Every structure is written in structure tokens, then in C-alpha cells.
Amino acid sequence: MFYREAGQYKTTYAADLAVFPLRQDRIGIAVIIFIAAVIIPYFGSGFLIQAVMIPFLIFSLAAIGLNLLTGYTGLLSLGTGAFMGVGAYACYKLTTYFPDVNIIIWVIASGFFSAAIGVLFGLPSLRIKGFYLAVATLAAQFFLSWCFIRQPWFYNYNASGAIEVPTRTLFGIPITGATATDNTRYYVVLVIVIAMTWLASNLVHGRIGRMWMAVRDMDLAAELIGIRLLRTKLLAFAVSSFYCGVAGALLVFLWYGGAEPAVFDVNLSFFILFMIIIGGLGSLIGSYFGAALIFILPIVLRYLPPRFGIPVQSATVEHVQFMIIGALIVFFLIVEPNGLARLWQVAKQKLRVWPFPY
Amino acid sequence: MRAPSERDIKAGEVLLSVENVSLSFGGVKAIRDVSFDIRKGEIRAIIGPNGAGKTSMLNVINGFYTPQKGRITFKGEARRKMRPHQAAEGGIARTFQNVALFRGMTTLDNIMTGRTLKMRSNLLTQLLRFGPAMKEEVEHRQFVEEIIDFLKIQEIRRVPVGRLPYGLQKRVELGRALAMEPDLLLLDEPMAGMNLEEKEDMSRYILDVNEQFGTTIALIEHDMGVVMDLSNRVVVLDHGIKIADGAPDEVKHDQAVIDAYLGVAH
Amino acid sequence: MDLLYKIFIDPFIQMGTAPDLLLQTLWDGLVAGVLYSLIALGFVLIFKASGVFNFAQGIMVVFAALTLVGLHEHGVPAFLALGITIAVMLALAVGVERLMLRPLVNQPDIILFMATFGLTYFLIGLGEVVFGSEPKVMIAEQLWLPRGAIEFKMGANGFVALQKIDIAAAVIATLMVIALAVFFQSTRIGRALRAVADSHKAALSVGISLEQIWVIVWFAAGLVALTTGIMWGARSEVSFALEIIALKALPVLILGGFTSIPGAIVGGLIIGVGEKLGEFYWGPLLGSGIESWLAYVIALIFLLFRPQGLFGDKIIERI
After folding, report:
1. How far is B116 from chain A (nearest CA, A)?
2. Are A332 and A275 in contact (CB under 8 A)?
3. CA of A149, closest CA in chain C: separation in Å?
4. Which chains border A (3 or more CB–CB pairs < 8 Å)?
5. Which residue from B minimizes the CA distance to A17?
């Protein structure tokens, strides 16, 4: 009844090609952005912002990055953690050497470093296909992890091996370091994530997105059409790693405030991979869904039982959370291999015909 | 469908010529010293019993396989080794026996991928979508819509191709090939698995493509009626060797061809 | 120049002047290699018969070992605990077949692969909840596994120490491989397994029950995992760290091919030796710990030249 396209007809191809052709969708997006930008910072507690919203956005960004590579282009990558690490450490070194340059510029620049590394480890994709390629990304993951731990240059020869984020400002307001407030950091992350999501959306809805999906679906036929496989795959690696690199830099600079090299290990790679599996491969909104589920679930598990008076050790919580995530993955793959994104699509479809059954 | 006598042999220039091509896989000789040509603007049928090497022949023309001996001359350029995307850039498009569509995408998107080579916008403009990228998208969308009208597949624009019936999938695949605006269109058993009506439709489309767009067509086909009615010239392969080459009427009455189909040992 | 010397000349001089160290390193490499091979063997079994790349093989090793030790901690005598653990692995195989493989039977391989990720995390969580996450000691003595080492002298001052448990591991691994090879080749079930590996549909059409085969195969992989767990646990300890080490089986499989049992063995030994040699002689140049990635880089380089591995079948794409 509400969610119908009756009366909305398109008279130009341009209108038909819009990402959100339905007016209701456009309104929905506007509402969500309004909530994110106004309601949450104003009414949300510091805990909500710091422990939930900021990391959720950052992980969504990383999930989008991995989704571009694995979901849209079909190249399985287990090196996400390492690529995020490259972004984080690149940003750290850049701001160490050039402390006067605006940190946002360095955050974006570190994405390019990450992209370069991604392309380097993506070169094998010319000869190696499908599953075997995952091994190349594992090589990247373990090698880079080792670098972060064993090459002291990365952490400025700090005795502890960890890095601590210096205070940096934007228009005079501190946005990193101990003095930056939750809300300030939240806004910076929000703006960056929204902007990059928009860019990703433009890419996947256009020629490049189609090229990626063609490579994923049948690379022989894609070659037939004239698509150059290596270039397309390397582009996927580059863009994906760019997103992961920026996410990594944001993770360290605008959330944790510091990092140990262990943060960017293979477990993080799996973490992000699970997000896109559950959220939906080949779907931008799925990246958000997956990040929400995988990230927020543990928080719920940790804080909900005490509310009901059930004493639960934090260690047990973590273990149970592994079990639940594992079971959820299998469950989703059985019930809906296309993840939460498809469930959402189905729900919208039902909504279109509501209140009729079909 | 037209009566055979009305299809003349086109006397145009040679668009593609296969010269002494031999191809083997390991010990199996798929193609043995085959030569023939395809003239501009004609419909050339490649026929022969199963295992004759027809699909391998198309794969060689396409660049998927590199023949051990011989060469292909296309539009005046001779070469032995070619990557498929080079064939595409040169103006060769192709459909497959087993329908090689991109199952994760809709009909519209599939045909739009056919326009990839014609689209020039780079990463930067694509990132921004509005402006030059959008303009280009609309331009090509217009072209693709004409193909959709031509093939009468308007209703299934937004349907993911995996859900379409086989006959429609083949039509979409044809649309994708047409979107490339090819000089040479290779069709691998376009009628396979179709009933009589579908075959008539597909034949009509093939003829229209040839007559309206002037596209040169090479097709592999098993249905003799289709071959006789559609093609200007026919080349017959058997066990990798060319056994006949000429107008459909001549080939139909050639004893070697009859023997090959009837399985007479020779 | 000095750098080139350090990379290409010096390590070999070191190898020559202290042959006992070289032998020790080689032996340590072989020992690690045997264990990698065993893990890879579990992968190959399941992949051969079902096309599923069982990422959970590593955690199955840990889980089996934990079950064994955990039962013993609660007072169950060693060999009874062993029997119960075997039964648990059978139950696991049945559970996996019914709850994971059967519902996903027609899905593409990548989906099944991702399902084994889910299985991995589930088993990690389950193991931690039931048995706790502190490392445990393997009940090697109670299982009549030998202790101590054989030492022999070499040259003037050198000596090489071979742990008896490692020798036992090599022997047991060899026996297991022979048993599996015989099983595959000669028995009716082995033939059925090979049929299923080739084509599910064809196997079904001659009346082979896919479900039974899968249970058998996962159970066999479970037994291999148990053996691996016991051996590895006896050498160091039983902890969840083993799970990450299991990822090392990937390079082994790449070298040896995903469907070849001899390949898994050879691949494992090559990776084990290559890693240890690399770490010992070239590690100090780069900073220690290159073991963590050397195997993957070796596998990667290998893949670039021979994408199907040493023993795998060459992939011919027919269009």
C-alpha cells in the first residue's frame, strides 16, 4: 500500500538508471541519514557512539571493500586484515613524517598505499584462479602481519611494538588522540563512510561494476566481450584494498587510538569475510547488514544477560559468540546463500504487495 | 522462410579466411589442415557430424584455441595466436552452445556488457556517475533498447537471466553479441534445444541481422532445413577434415557428405 | 655484494661446517612435515570424495585431542577415552553430514567451503565452552607412546637428537597412509569413494548412497585428525594455536595437489623441511619468524609455474 511504484513512471533513461528509482526508497535513505547524522549524536550515549556506531561504520567500510573484490568480482581474499593494516601503518608513518598535513588527507592517501599492495598481491590472479588465489592473499596476510610485528620501522621503534595515535586537528578541532570527543570522531567517520559508499555505489552500478560481475560469473565469456581480465581483476584488488586501507586507518586513528600489530591478523580477515557472507555477497547494503550482525551480536551477548540477572563470564561469552556466529553462517548458507541482503529484498517485495499476499 | 533458390552466393570480398589450420589436444587431432573462407555479408554454415571439430573451429577463430599449424586472416591481418579479447576488439562476437550468459545479472545488464568495448569512460568519471559517465550510460542504454526491441525481449529486461527459459536465454545471448556491433558473428548451434516455432523465430532474427545490419555470420547448426534455408554457402567437416565446400544445394547432394552423415566408413 | 654473499654463500657454508645442526634442522623439518602431511591428508580425503574443502580440518584436530585429554582429566582411563573419542568423531561426521552437507548438496563448492568456516568457528566455540581454553598436556604416556630421545654423535663435537615420539609419529603416519591407500584401491567402499569423487550424479545412478559415503569419509578424516592431534599434542601441547597452524596445510595441498594422497605426504615434507631450513639459515637475515609466511610464499611461487600442483590433474577448460 505504501511501498508501491504506482504513479511513478520514468520518462527518461537517466531516470530509469537511478540507483533508487522508487520515491519511497529515496525517502528511506534520507531518513536513515538524518537519523545517523542528527538523532544519534544528539540522543545517543557516549557508549553507543564509541563502542557501537563508530566501529560499525568502519567495519561496514571494510566489508564493502572486501565485497567489491569477493562479492562482485568473485576473487576470494583472506588478506583483508593485512590490507587494513597497511592503511593504518601507512597513515601512521605519513603523519609521523609530515605532522602538519591534515590527517584526513593522510587517511585517504594511506588508501592508495594499500591499493598498491593489493595490486601487487593481486598479480598472481592472472594465472591462478578461484580458490587457489585465496592462498596468495594468505601469503600477503601472513607476510604483512610479520612485517608489522618484526620490522620496527613500522612502529617507530617503539619498545612495546604498539603504536599510539598522536593528536591531530581539523579546522582547529581535535579529531584524533585523547582529546578528540566521541561525537567529533563519529562525524568524521560518518562523512567518510557515506562518501565512500556513494562512490562504491556509482562504480557497481556502471560499466566497471558490470565488468566485475562478468568476470565473476563467467570469465571466459567476459573475455569474449572484450573485457581484459587482468586489468579488471587488478582494478578490483586496487579499489578493494583502497577501501580496506582507509578502513584500517580509521580503525586506528578514529576508534582505537592506537594499535598492536596483532589487530590486523588473519582472524580479522575472517571476521570481515563472515560479514559479507552473512550480509550478502555482491551487495553494498549487505555489507552493512553483515557488519551489523557480526559486530553488534557480541555486544548484545555481552551486555544483555547481566540485564536479565544472568551472570556470564566474559570469556564464556566470547566462546558462545563463536558458536553462534559459526552456526549462523551455516544456517544462512543453507537458508539464504545470498545473505541478509536477499532477505531484505524479499521483505521489500512483500512490502510492495502489502496488504495483499501476492 | 525463404526457398533455397533465392539465397545467392555473395560475391563480396573475403572477411575471414582459415588457412591450413590444424589443431590437436594432446593426442587428439581435432582439426586437420582445414582451409575455407568467409565472405563479407554472407551467412556461412559449418556443418558436420558430431565430433567433426566444428566448435573447435569457432574457438580457433575466436582466439580461445591456438592452432598448432596454419593461420587465420581477418580483415586483412594474418595471425596464428590471438587472445579472445583481441578477437572482440577486432569485431568478432560469438554465442555458445551452452549459453554463456552472466547468471548473476539481468537481461539488460547482460546486453549492456556487450557495449563494454564501446564505452570509454574511465574510473574517475565512473566514480562520479553524474556527468559524462551517466551520459554515456544513457547513450548505450538507448542502443541496447533498440536491440531489445529488435529481439522482442522487452518484458524480461529486469529478470535475472538464470531464471529465463532456455530459448529466451539464447535470444539474450544473441542480443549481447549484437550489442558488440560485430563485423563477424559466430553462432554455435543457435537452434539447439528449440521447438519448431522457436527455430522459426531465431531464423528470422538471424536473417534480419544479416540483412538489416549487414553482419557476416558463421553458424554451426545441425538442423539441415535451417542450414539450407539460411545459408549462402556451407562448409562440411568430418573428423577434423573438410569434405565439402559450396552452395547448400551442391553440398546436399555431395556423396562424401551423405556418407559422413550416414556413418559409412571412408 | 656483502648482501649477496650473506644470501647465497654464507648459509651453505654454515650447513657444511656444522653438519650436525643441518641434520637436526632437516630432521625437525621432516617431523613438522609429517604433521603437516597428516593434516593435509584429512583435507584430501574429504575433498576427494565430496569436493568440499574442509577448512575445519584444523579445528577437528584440536577438538579430537581436547576430547581425548578432557575425558582423561575426568578420570576416564586412557584407552577407553580413546574409544569414546573415536565415537565422538563418528558422531561429528554424522552430524556434519546431516546438518551441513545434506542441506547444501547442490550448492556450488564455494558455498560449502564457506560453510566449513562456520563449522570451524562453531567447533572452536564449542571446544572452548566444554573444555576451557587453557592449553593441556597430551596423555602420551598413558597411550604407550615412547618418550625420550635417541642421540648420536656427529663429527667432533656435534650431536643430533631424534625424539622417539617423532619417530613414532613418522611410523604411525606411514602406516596410516598405507592403510588408507589400500582402503581406497581395494575395498568396495574405497571404490565407491573414488566414484563419488569423480561424479556425484553418476555415483548416485549406480546406487551409491552419497550420505553413507560422506559419513565414512568425514569419519576417516576425523580419525586422521585424532591421530594428528595425539602426535602433535605429544610433541608440544594441546591448544587452540594449532588451529592456525592448520592453515599451513593449504600450501601443502597446493604443492601436492588437492586430490592426491602421496602428494599430501610429499608436499608436507617439502614444506616442513623448506620452512625449517629457511628459518634457520636465512631467517636471521630478515628478522626471525619468517616461518609464519615462508610456506605460503613458496606455495605462491609454485602456483605461478604449475597451477595444478605437483601431483594434481592439469586443468583443461572445455568450452
Report:
1. 7
2. no
3. 10
4. B, C
5. B138
Residues in chain C: 319
Q: Is the pLDDT of residue A172 over 60?
A: yes
What is the Cα–Cα distance from C163 to C120, expressed in whole angstroms? 32
- Which helix (DSSP H) or strand (DSSP E) does residue A232 occupy? helix A229-251
Q: Indicate the residue of A127, A322, A328 with minimum beta-carbon distance to C307.
A: A127
* C-alpha closest to that of C52 among C106, C121, C95: C106
Binned at pLDDT 50, 70 and 90, residue A113 comes out as very high
The pLDDT-based confidence of C91 (bands split at 50, 70, 90) is very high
- Report the candidate in A272, A243, A278, A232 with the shortest Cα–Cα distance to residue A75: A232
Q: Tell me whether residues B25 and C319 touch, CB distance under 8 A.
A: no
Q: Taking CB atoms and an 8 Å cutoff, what residues of chain B touch C319?
A: 55, 59, 64, 96, 100
8 Å CB contact of A210 and B137 = no
For A6-10, A71-75, A285-289, which range has the lowest pLDDT when averaged over its residues?
A6-10
Per-residue pLDDT at B175: 95
A208 part of contact set with chain B, CB < 8 Å: yes
CA geometry: angle A16, A21, A25, nearest 5 deg: 175
Count of helices and strands (H, E) across chain B: 10, 10
At A258, which helix (H) or strand (E)? strand A258-259
The rounded mean pLDDT for chain C is: 81
Given an 8 Å threshold on Cβ–Cβ distance, is C316 in contact with B25?
Answer: yes
For residue B221, the 8-state DSSP code is: -
Angle ∠(B168,B169,B175) on CA atoms, nearest 5: 90
Instruction: Of B214-218, B219-223, C114-118, give the range with the top mean pLDDT.
Output: B214-218
Which CA distances in Å does B154 have to A35, B144, B159? 40, 11, 10
Mutate to test the interface with A, among B116, B119, B121, B142 (most CBs of A within 10 A): B116
Write the ipTM: 0.86
Q: Which of C104, C288, C296 sits opposite A139 (nearest CB)?
A: C296
* pLDDT reading at A3 higher than 80: no
Residue B157's closest CA among C93, A13, C105, A176?
A13
Higher pLDDT, A193 or A124: A193
